[in-house]
Amino acid sequence: MFKDIHYNEYTREFMEQLPKGAFLTVKDGDSINTMTIGWGNIGVIWNKPIITVAVRYSRHTYHLINHSNEFTLSIPLNGQLKKELGYCGTKSGRDVDKFKECGLSAIKGNMVETPVIGECDLFYECKIVYKQTMEPALLDTTIDEKYYSNHDYHVLYYGEIVSAYIKEK
């Protein structure tokens, strides 16, 4: 069903899809939540393959990810799941079960406890190796004014990619 890949084999496809949406999933104990992200990065830091994601303090995922040491990214590559990405980007896991409401299947990860979303095509499993709270005083003022007028800043999570794979066709 899945084929292991080198972490950077589908970097172009990942980065092209990211502004359209990808699913960031976190598990803390029995609680699982997914949210839509549109910002992130993939590269090498500390000689490790790293994905960086940003989660705002106000998000339900923020509370889960701080009690977890991992996350997964599930990326649809074929134009599917637009409605689901929209829903998961506007509804809170505090109030709804996004998997149930969107008909998404949680598939057990290869190397982490956090599941991936089975309806997607490209998957990354990550172990958090660093967390960085944004320092507003160091942020470019035009970015601060445009994206943080309400002062709901992000925490940046650096996840070492421990498994990457695609859905076999």
UniProtKB/TrEMBL annotation:
EC number: 1.5.1.-
UniProt KW keywords: Oxidoreductase
Top-level taxon: Bacteria
A Pfam family of this chain: Flavin_Reduct
PANTHER family recorded: FLAVOREDOXIN-RELATED-RELATED, HYPOTHETICAL CYTOSOLIC PROTEIN
Location of the Flavin reductase like domain: 23-168
Family named by the database record: Belongs to the flavoredoxin family.
Tagged with keyword Transferase: no
Protein name as catalogued: Flavin reductase family protein
One Gene Ontology MF term: oxidoreductase activity
Organism: Defluviitalea saccharophila
InterPro entries: Flavin_Rdtase-like_dom (IPR002563), Flavoredoxin (IPR052174), Split_barrel_FMN-bd (IPR012349)
